């Protein structure tokens, strides 16, 4: 009898934990938009293990500008974007460790622009985008602790308004979302285009941008920026990682942002790692960027600009890193399909955009 009771008790506990886990997954909102949800869900749950050539890490400028299916079609590299809105730079190392649990790669591209996050603009919501995506592990626990530490260093003790336990058990943060649940909370959409932006209103938006002033001047990093950059570089050296640091092309910078990036690049090069600053007159010319058609706002490329950026960066990677050409393999047919899907998405989207503009012009004449 006691044995049966023990079995029932254990079964009840296991059932409770399973239901609690499933409920939590429904309630957690680890991003603001469906595109991020589908891309990150696929990264963790539907991407085949040990299939990536590497990953490109950064904030929204990355997933707006990097079009993985094009890089695949042109060069046979499977470089998936591991990126979140306003991604904090202090979590880059944790993302690398998380990726390496699932993908046997030593190649990482990091957009240094996210180092700007380690200032007073650092916010709890940006932290949660990343943390709430990560499966529980020692690495996630480390990411939580460093995130809370940065929040308190930047904003003072008591700045972490939520119960700290909610970072470990997100249910305590999101349990009140029942009335706000949407279809995307129940159905985890898969990214059909290997993380490429699949939101038409952003991919096909076009707004003429005024080009900002460029500078080669440097400004010293603050203590947190220096700490987490050095930590990342030391880890990469100790683990023989192949790293490429870039600055995604933007139309305009915030005050002082460019000078901090330049200093970060100087430090990175002193470690022997290559850098690509896409915000120079020479690079704008190389990319043939058109500031009247290739941006959707001052920070983000649209799909036209993204195509130019992706082709250039993919060619650079192919020429400078020994990454195997994976095209033609049966197990990579999903990447071939992703390219076909993206090409149709791109062609149809810009064709529709042209029709809309023609209709507006017609109505204006009337």
Question: Brief description of this entry?
Answer:
The chain has about 375 residues and is of the alpha/beta class. About 55% of the residues lie in helices and about 5% in strands. Helix 4 crosses helix 15.
Question: Topology, please?
Answer:
Layout: H1 2-27, H2 34-46, E1 54-58, H3 60-65, H4 68-75, E2 79-83, H5 92-102, E3 107-111, H6 124-131, H7 138-155, H8 165-168, H9 171-174, H10 183-186, H11 200-203, H12 223-238, E4 242-247, H13 257-270, E5 275-277, H14 281-287, H15 303-320, H16 333-365
Parallel strand pairs: 1-2, 1-3, 3-4, 4-5
Q: Would you write up a description of this structure?
A:
By secondary structure, the protein is α/β, with parallel strands linked by helices. It has a single domain (32-365), classed as SGNH hydrolase (Rossmann fold, 3-Layer(aba) Sandwich). It contains 16 helices and five strands. It has helices at 2-27, 34-46, 60-65, 68-75, 92-102, 124-131, 138-155, 165-168, 171-174, 183-186, 200-203, 223-238, 257-270, 281-287, 303-320, 333-365, and strands spanning 54-58, 79-83, 107-111, 242-247, 275-277. A five-stranded parallel β-sheet has the order 2-1-3-4-5. Helix 4 crosses helix 15 (303-320) and helix 4 packs across helix 16. The chain is globular and about 75 Å long. The chain starts with a helix and ends with a helix.
Main attributes?
16 helices, 5 strands, Rossmann fold, 366 residues, alpha/beta, 53% helix
């Amino acid at each position: 009898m006691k044995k049966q009771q023990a079995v029932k008790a254990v079964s009840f506990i296991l059932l409770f934990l399973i239901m609690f886990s499933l409920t939590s997954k429904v309630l957690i909102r680890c991003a603001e938009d469906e595109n991020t949800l589908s891309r990150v869900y696929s990264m963790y749950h539907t991407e085949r293990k040990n299939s990536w050539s590497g990953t490109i890490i950064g904030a929204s400028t990355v997933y707006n500008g990097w079009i993985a299916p094009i890089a695949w079609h042109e060069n046979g590299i499977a470089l998936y974007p591991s990126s979140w809105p306003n991604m904090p730079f202090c979590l880059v190392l944790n993302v690398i460790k998380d990726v390496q649990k699932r993908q046997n790669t030593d190649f990482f591209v990091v957009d240094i622009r996210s180092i700007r996050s380690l200032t007073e603009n650092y916010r709890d919501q940006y932290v949660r985008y990343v943390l709430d995506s990560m499966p529980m592990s020692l690495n996630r626990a480390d990411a939580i602790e460093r995130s809370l530490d940065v929040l308190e260093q930047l904003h003072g003790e008591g700045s972490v308004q939520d119960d700290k336990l909610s970072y470990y058990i997100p249910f305590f943060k999101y349990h009140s979302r029942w009335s706000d649940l949407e279809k995307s909370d129940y159905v985890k959409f898969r990214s059909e285009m290997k993380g490429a932006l699949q939101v038409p209103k952003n991919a096909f938006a076009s707004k003429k941008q005024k080009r900002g002033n460029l500078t080669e001047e440097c400004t010293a990093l603050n203590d947190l920026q220096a700490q987490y950059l050095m930590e990342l570089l030391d880890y990469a050296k100790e683990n023989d990682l192949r790293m490429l640091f870039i600055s995604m092309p933007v139309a305009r910078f915030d005050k002082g942002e460019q000078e901090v990036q330049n200093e970060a690049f100087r430090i990175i090069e002193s470690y022997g790692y290559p850098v690509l600053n896409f915000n120079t007159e020479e690079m704008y010319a190389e990319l043939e960027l058109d500031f009247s058609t290739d941006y959707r706002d001052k920070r983000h490329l649209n799909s036209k600009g993204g195509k130019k950026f992706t082709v250039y960066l993919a060619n650079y990677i192919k020429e400078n890193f020994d990454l195997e050409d994976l095209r033609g393999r049966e197990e990579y047919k999903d990447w071939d399909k992703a390219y076909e899907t993206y090409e149709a998405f791109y062609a149809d989207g810009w064709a529709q955009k042209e029709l809309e503009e023609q209709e507006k012009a017609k109505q204006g004449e009337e």
